[in-house]
Amino acid sequence: MIDLYTWGTPNGQKVSIMLEEVGLAYATHPINITKDEQFAPDFLKISPNNKIPAIVDSDGPGGQDIALFESGAILIYLAEKCQREDLLPASGEARYKVLQWLMFQMGGVGPMFGQAHHFLKFAKEDVPYAKDRYTTEQKRLYSVMNAHLAAHDFFAGGLFTIADIAIYPWVARHPWHPIELGDYPHVKRWYDMISQRESVEAGMNVPPRPAG
Predict the structure, then answer these.
(1) Sheet harboring 2-6: ordered strands across?
(2) Of 2, 39, 60, 162, which sits most exposed with the smallest number of CB within 10 A?
């Protein structure tokens, strides 16, 4: 059994999509970051950086409990645990193509889109320089994705992988950027295709959103 500690953010949604995709049983433990629950001492024992998502696998290597934080590390772990070489090839060039696009998300899309969200939606004061810096960079990243997807069905080539799982929840917040996906037609084609996967639809709703 996997215990998933998460909230409804793109980083959290990566892991819930992955758990739905691989079909592992899991229990969801919401960590309400709007109420600073990520700083609770019990959560700190699981996630030393006080960030969601995190997991505890009661059937880790050797049958022992293992706690993991950092969404990218969790995606790799789950793919290898389930021996899903379609999601992450075991070796060779195909593996590194997946990992390079996973790192593209971890080092570029996530941080840059996250900063754009902060300064456009949540900052308590208007900071024009920051807004311009991060919206300019996110548009550049969309252009990189669009050019790549013009020649590939998915980020790592012809198969849906953990790279697509990592990038999708951030693109799903395009209204927050704000970005018109129609301006990036190959990203939109990819986004619309990914959105139809049952695992994606289910994982994007973990933890369940309040009614109303």
Answers:
(1) 26-30, 2-6, 54-57, 66-69
(2) 39
Q: How many CB atoms lie within 10 A of CB 175?
A: 9
**What span, in angstroms and rounded, lies between the C-alpha atoms of 38 and 47?**
9
Contact predicate 1/25, CB 8 Å? yes
Please state, rounded to an integer, the average pLDDT across all residues of the chain: 96
In angstroms, the CA 88 to CA 205 distance is 24
User: Residue 43's CB: how many other CB atoms inside 10 A?
Assistant: 19
Kindly state the tokens that stand for 162.
């953990």
Q: Which residues of 5-25 are buried (b: 16+ CB within 10 A; e: fewer)?
A: bbbbbbbbbbbbbbbbbbebe
Task: Answer yes or no: is pLDDT of 112 > 50.
Answer: yes
- List of E strands, 64-207: 66-69
How far is residue 120's CA from residue 3's CA, in Å, rounded to a whole number?
A: 33
Structural contact between residues 210 and 10, judged by C-beta atoms closer than 8 angstroms: no
Phi, psi at residue 69, to the nearest 5°?
-125, 175
Helix axes 128-149, 110-117, angle to 10 degrees: 140
User: Residue 208 — pLDDT band, cuts 50, 70, 90?
Assistant: confident
How far is residue 182's CA from residue 189's CA, in Å, rounded to a whole number?
9
